[in-house]
Structures are given as structure tokens and as C-alpha cells.
Amino acid sequence: MVSVTTCILTVLIGFGSFVRSYYTEEYRPQFHFTPEQNWMNDPNGLVYHNGQYHLFYQYNPNGTTWGFMSWGHAVSTDLVHWKHLPIALECESDSNGNVLEMFFSGSAVVDVNNTTGFAIPVGKDRRGHVINSTPMVAIYTSYYPTAHTQSNGVVIRAGQQSQSIAFSNDNGLTWTQYEGNPVIESPPAGYVDQYQNFRDPFVFWYSPSSKWIMVASLANEHILLIYSSDNLKTWKLESQFGPENAKFGQWECPSLFPLYVDGNNRAEKWVILMGVNPGGVITGSGTQYIIGSFNGTTFVADPSDTYDPTQIPAGSIVFQNFESTSSTFKELGWKATGDFALFGPQVASSVTTQTINGNLGSGLLTTWIVDDSATGTIISPKFIITKNYISFLIAGGYYPYNPSTAGTANDNQVSFSLIVGGQVVHSQTGADAENLVWRSWNVAGWFGEEAYFIVTDLNTNSWGHLHVDEIIFSDTPKVEANWNDFGPDYYAAATYNGLPTADRIAIGWMNNWAYGGNIPTSPWRSAMSVPRKLALKTINNNVLLVQQPVSSLSSLYTPSLYSRKFSSLKSGETEIPVPAPYNARMKLTVSFKRGTGSKFGVILRSNATNTQETIIGYDFLGQNVFVDRFKSGDNAFVGSEPNQFPGHFIATLPSTLTDSITLNILLDWSSVEVFDGNGQVAFTSQIFPLDDSAQVKLFSVGGTTRTVTVAINGMKSSW
């Protein structure tokens, strides 16, 4: 047994007293939550109690990179203005400085029925009856870096992850760890070897059975374990769920909660929300959801909400499956140049990079020839677009097609692109992974036109290769997963306990593990997304998880800074006058209809030479919302190749000629968040522009955009 101290190496003096003086550093968000200083990641323990929203979060008290993980703590009465509180659960070490326990992610509940017995007397009522406290209980993963024996005699293995609890009787200000920790020491039979990747418990009260329910992740197995308990101390394994849909990287930070469909309290469904890392919709981290039912012991996904990667949509035309591994590309009617000229499809198992997974059949197209040094192009035969969607499997390195550098000496793309009329109209790169994943393009806007594909590999750096398989044409897209956010910077989303079913609020970590430890901010690193209200909505006969920023953000709006309606916006750029400082932090809503143009959108944080800008818009032909941060400012902080920060991110949003499309945009000093009018598409993206990049513009490409309405409010600082 060992004596225990906290891991704190430095002391935060005057906690919260000098926030106002230094919440103006370069890139410091003005209406997103950030810690005063040091590293932050996952939101934890979101719970509403006694008029306060509690936000706990993964926190390093000793620096601006991950380590010494503890639970930071803040509270708010409106989800907008936050008050910093002392660290709730502090990393612990022995007398020699060896870290014994870190406090990983989890949840918090209010034990109103005192099922734990943690309540204490706090006074008496007028009749002399004892009044007890209402315990707040944190349920978290104990991570034990070193082997040791706890004071309660539990033998801990190095790297072990177990589920533990702590309680507070003063509304979360001070905490006591349960003497019987951990309450779930190891994964169940069949998974005992996963003791180092068993984490992130989400707990809630299930009224029909009067039990606590826990969902915890076996991260590497892509399995969620569902437990029940009468008292938060003793747990019974009830069932498991998974793997389903995005089965990549690790599954982390799951939550399970009910929502009403279309606001009808008689039409309830349950939602699993979880992080996937790596393996997000772009590269690095992402967040997926699955809709289904829950009966108190078992979650069952709706059949319409799970996707078999081996099945293609009915009526699909297979353009190329690359099974002719004894043929050259030339023999298949493709044209290969450079190092690929004499090659053809390869047997996936023979490719000597890391193990390739997810291909259909045995063959695929690959640009890995012995190593990453091969360069050149592989061009398909021409074809006529006769279906609404093109889908394909893809893997490899993240080196996206960049229109600004394509064809220049700086062109380093490794991409699979669709060419129509001599122009790249869609392009996809890999995600620094060898797992082939489905991606789909809407091509209805080019119906009847001639097109071809080009695989371009101009990169000899690490991950400078691409794999492509099973190119199909279909009337519907081949869906891989339900993504909660299509941007690169929304992960580990957690939802609030203690609110009505109709008021489910989520907050995500606004960062990405691919580069999060290097973003150019100081003395803090990482922010949270704005809180978002979740709902289930039927759109085109499909029930979808939708989201919008919480309405209380309106308390930060300035009076209108700009409001105008254009019956027809001309082709080109139209500058919008927005005064400082609100040209760098604003709420912008734009509605529009298709005219003669092919794209429309907004340019934010642009400089006079257009060498810095963030572009948000809609592609009428490609039927997608997009965010482009190729030129959004500093991205050199990644410091290595591939650089996973720059990119052009899309989400399909079909529309007709008469549809009015609405985009709600929140711009803060170092981020943009975008929501379509229905909330079915969301993007979260960090940006790091220079101070002089402050222009705001509308743009219309290739013609006019009709019925454009623009409304801008500045966002006052919440600090």
C-alpha cells in the first residue's frame, strides 16, 4: 500500500479572479468555454441541478498537452456565461511522484433518492425533522499507469482502466472518492484481456425499472457494455451492443438517451452517441450516432440505422471492382502514367503496407508500389452520369486535392477525383488509415454529362499512397455511418443529465486528436463547442438526429449589424461591411435559392489579398454544404506530413430548384460552426487567421443566386 498525493505541480492562484484581464489572448474564443489555462479535452459529468449546469472536463493542471488527467469544473446558469470552480478530481501520485491514478472521462448524476447512502444531515425543518443533502455522484474511469495495491487491498495492474465513483454533498464543490473503488474492476468474461481499454461510463436513471443504467466502452472491440445497478456501487452486466457502422479506431465516450420524434411524446426513440478515433468522417476524430430502442437492459438499433459495408444499394451499377488482378490498367481501359504505367489492380493481401481491411473481393487499385515513393496518375474510361450517386471504398494518406496548388510545384495531393467538363467537381483523399471506408458523391447536377475519374499520387512522404475499390453508380448513396458533425473538430460529445427528454443538450470537444496537442494557443489549449439542443426529426421519411445552438446564446447578440435581401445576387464577390471587433465574432444567417450559378456562400476572415479566408457555402450541382479551410490561417503548427488540418469538408444536403436553403453560422476568434436550417448538417472547424483577416463577403459562382437574405449580429464576449 502507498501514500497518495495529488499530481498538481503548480497552483492556480486567485482562481477565476483575473479571467477578464486575460481572456483576450490571440485566438482565445469569446463565447466558447475554455479553461483559464492548460490542456482540456473531453467534456465530462454534464448534469443540471438546482438551477446550474455543471461542466466537468478532462484537464491537465500541469501543462498545455495531455497528461495528469483530472476533472476540471465550471458552472453556468444559462450555458453561456461560465464560472470556473476548483478542480473536482485531481490526479494522484505516490510519494516518489509516480502517477497512481488519473481520472478519465465519465458522467455525473444527482442521487435524489439517496440510493447510494451518501447523503448527510444538513439541518432540520420547522418540525425538527432531519434534512439530508442530495448527493451528486461522478462515475468515471480510473486509469492506473503503474501497478500497485490500493489502501482497500485491491491489486491494480499497470495500465488498468476500471470504473469508479466519487460523491459530493455540497453541489459539486468538494468530492470524496468511494472507499470501495473501483466499482467495476475489469471487463466481463470474454473480454478480460481488454482491461487497458475499458472506459468512459455514461450513467442515467431509468425510471421504468427504478435502476441506474451504465453504458461503457470496450474501445478496441467497438462494443458498448450495458450495466444496471440499484445503488451505483454494485453493477450487473445486462447486455452489449456493437460493433455497428463506423467500426474504426476506438469507440469512446458513449451516451444513451431518449428523444421524441418530431416533438411527439408518444413517439420515443433512443439514441447512442459515441466518439470514433481515429476513423472520423474526415481524418482523426469523429462522432457517430445510432437510433433504436431501449427496454432497460438492451439497446436494439433500428434496421434502417445500421449499414452492412458488404452490401451495395439495390439497382447499383458496378463501374469497376478491380478484381482483374492479372490485368494492367491499360488492358482494363484505364490510362496509367508515371510509376503506375505498367501496373494494374493488386491483390489486397499482397500489398506490403500495413494490413488492408474493408475491401470487397480480393483486388483493389493501389498506388503503393513497394513503398510510398511511386507517383503518377491512373485515369478511368469516360462514362455518362446516369445515376444520382457515385460511391466507392477508399483508404490511404490524407493529402487532399487543393485547387490553389493543383498543377503547381507545391501540388502534393493523393486523391481520387471526378472530372466533368475538364473540372474537378468532387475529390476525396484518405484518412491516414488502411481501413477502406465508403464515401459517396451526389452527382445529380451533372446528370447526362460525360465524366471520368482520376487517381493522382504526387507524394512520396509517409502515407503517400491511396487504395480505391468497388466504384458504383446508384440512385441512393452507400452510407457508412450516421455522422453527428461533418467537420473535423467535434469529438467526445456528452449530453446533460437532469433535463427533460425534450431538452437534451450536448457539448463536444472542439478539437481533433490528429493535431489537437499542437494548436497555436496559449496559455490554454482546446475549447468546447457551443451547447447544442438535440432532437429527432423526420426528413424525407428518415428519422435523423438534428441539432441547433441553444437559444440562450442570443443573450450575447448585439443589435443587427447588417440585414439585407438580394432578389438576385450577381456572380462574383460582394463585400459586407461589418465593424470590428464583430467581423471576427458574429452570428450570421443566410437564406438563398438557386439561380443560374453553381455555388453560393460566405467568405469569413478574409484578408485583402485573399491569401487567408474561410469559405462556407453550398454547391448546387454537388448538392452539398461545404466548409473550406485550406487558407484559413496558420496550419504549420502540425509540423509533419501528412498535415491533417487543411481541407475542404462536405455534407450532402439534397435540394430542388425551388428550395430555400438556410445556413446558420457562428464565427468566433478561432472557430466556425455551421448548421443548416433543419439542423441535419453541422460542421465544427477551428481556424487560426491573422488579425488583419477580417473581411466578410458573399459569393456566387458561375451565375446568380436568387432570393438571398443575410442577417448579421455581433457576438459579445461571454467572459
Automatic annotation (TrEMBL):
<comment type="similarity">
    <text>Belongs to the glycosyl hydrolase 32 family.</text>
</comment>
<keyword id="KW-0378">Hydrolase</keyword>
<dbReference type="InterPro" id="IPR018053">
    <property type="entry name" value="Glyco_hydro_32_AS"/>
</dbReference>
<dbReference type="InterPro" id="IPR013320">
    <property type="entry name" value="ConA-like_dom_sf"/>
</dbReference>
<feature type="domain" description="Glycosyl hydrolase family 32 C-terminal">
    <location>
        <begin position="581"/>
        <end position="710"/>
    </location>
</feature>
<dbReference type="GO" id="GO:0004575">
    <property type="term" value="F:sucrose alpha-glucosidase activity"/>
</dbReference>
<keyword id="KW-0326">Glycosidase</keyword>
<dbReference type="InterPro" id="IPR013189">
    <property type="entry name" value="Glyco_hydro_32_C"/>
</dbReference>
<dbReference type="GO" id="GO:0005737">
    <property type="term" value="C:cytoplasm"/>
</dbReference>
<feature type="domain" description="Glycosyl hydrolase family 32 N-terminal">
    <location>
        <begin position="476"/>
        <end position="549"/>
    </location>
</feature>
<dbReference type="Pfam" id="PF08244">
    <property type="entry name" value="Glyco_hydro_32C"/>
</dbReference>
<dbReference type="InterPro" id="IPR001362">
    <property type="entry name" value="Glyco_hydro_32"/>
</dbReference>
<dbReference type="GO" id="GO:0005987">
    <property type="term" value="P:sucrose catabolic process"/>
</dbReference>
<dbReference type="GO" id="GO:0005576">
    <property type="term" value="C:extracellular region"/>
</dbReference>
<protein>
    <submittedName>
        <fullName>Glycosyl hydrolase</fullName>
    </submittedName>
</protein>
<feature type="domain" description="Glycosyl hydrolase family 32 N-terminal">
    <location>
        <begin position="32"/>
        <end position="305"/>
    </location>
</feature>
<dbReference type="InterPro" id="IPR013148">
    <property type="entry name" value="Glyco_hydro_32_N"/>
</dbReference>
<dbReference type="InterPro" id="IPR023296">
    <property type="entry name" value="Glyco_hydro_beta-prop_sf"/>
</dbReference>
<dbReference type="Pfam" id="PF00251">
    <property type="entry name" value="Glyco_hydro_32N"/>
</dbReference>
